Amino acid sequence: MDDPAISRRGFLAAGGGGFLAAVAGCAEPGSRARSGRGDSSLPSTVDLEERADGTVYTEIYADVIDSVAMVTVSGVETEDGGEGAGQGSAFVFDDHLVTNNHVVEGAELIQLQYTNGDWTEAEVVGTDVYSDLAALDVVHRPDSAASLPFADVLPTVGQEVLAVGNPYGLEGTMSQGIVSGVNRSLPGPQGYDIPNAVQTDAGVNPGNSGGPLLDIDGRVVGVVNAGIVEGVGFAISAALASRVLPSLIEAGRYDHPRMGVTLREVTPAVATANDLAEATGVLIVDVPADGPAAGVLQGSTDQVTYEGVSIPVGGDVVVGLAGEPIPDSGALSRVLALQASPGQTVPVEVRRDGESTTVDLELGARPTDP
């Protein structure tokens, strides 16, 4: 599915250099801060054999921290043709480690360090640019580094969550917050959004990308993807990651479904120009002749100017897909990503020439290299 949403490159460029670093979620290796290990400056009144009782967060941290590693990459080609390096986070899933594709993309050397101090080399066994996920095979994994389970229920706004990772190279860091938004769309390649993302106000900084966002039962709610500004971070949802990762591990790739159309959100202006009773659904602007929707869905037939804006008219308006209502392009992306597969035939409910009708569409697959 094509979507006129802002491109990831444009999205990242919008806020300047600091914004870029935060979104990428990768810290430069040289930015790793001192851990404070071996500090002998503690006053003698402190009992070095005792620790504070802690909280439920302390228990979760103890349960999961051995399964989270710091990722260090080198040999990444830079925009000026040189070589760069970076850092991120990863966690154990099904005898592999999971991280973001953007953390390891193009790296010649990938090394991981577990919180017990062990280092290991890793190689990529599967990547998916459309969900920004990657699966890594490692030479060594400590026995205590167990696979972290994914949450089997959808997150909800206000739910307490914990981000674990390595911001700025500070290994084994935990931050606490809530789910502050759900069903967010993150800009992806070639106009395809990453749907169903989880928004959180838990501290997410460069170096956190690829680490787990956990609920208070220690289950993965999402794979941390980006920290935009203070208090606004995002994670690839467990619902999407749990579909993509098994395929990355087994086949090295994941095939996303596509309708093969160009879309326009139905705003009040688009609804007025197309004589629609309400501003809901997505308008089909174009149907390429070689795409899955050719001969099934109809694109716009003309353009009109409404309040100084050119608006396509005459195309199908998608209001339902696979039995789910489609109020906007985000819902369409979400249903395709979480409930459909290439080669599957799905019913598409559309408004066409003032009437409601349902057509059957066999979904195609997105190009593997966007």
UniProtKB/TrEMBL annotation:
EC number from the UniProt entry: 3.4.21.-
Q: Does the keyword Ion transport apply?
A: no
Q: Which GO terms describe its biological process?
A: proteolysis
Which PROSITE patterns is this protein grouped with?
A: TAT
**Which InterPro entries does the record cross-reference, listed alphabetically?**
Chloro_Bact_Ser_Proteases (IPR051201), PDZ (IPR001478), PDZ_sf (IPR036034), Peptidase_S1_PA (IPR009003), Peptidase_S1C (IPR001940), TAT_signal (IPR006311)
Q: Which organism is it from?
A: Halovivax cerinus
- PANTHER family recorded for this chain? PEPTIDASE S12, PROTEASE DO-LIKE 8, CHLOROPLASTIC
One Pfam short name: PDZ_2
Indicate whether Aminoacyl-tRNA synthetase appears among the record's keywords: no
The residues covered by the PDZ domain are 257-363
Keywords (A to Z) from UniProt: Hydrolase, Protease
Q: What is this protein called?
A: S1C family serine protease
Q: Listed GO molecular functions?
A: peptidase activity
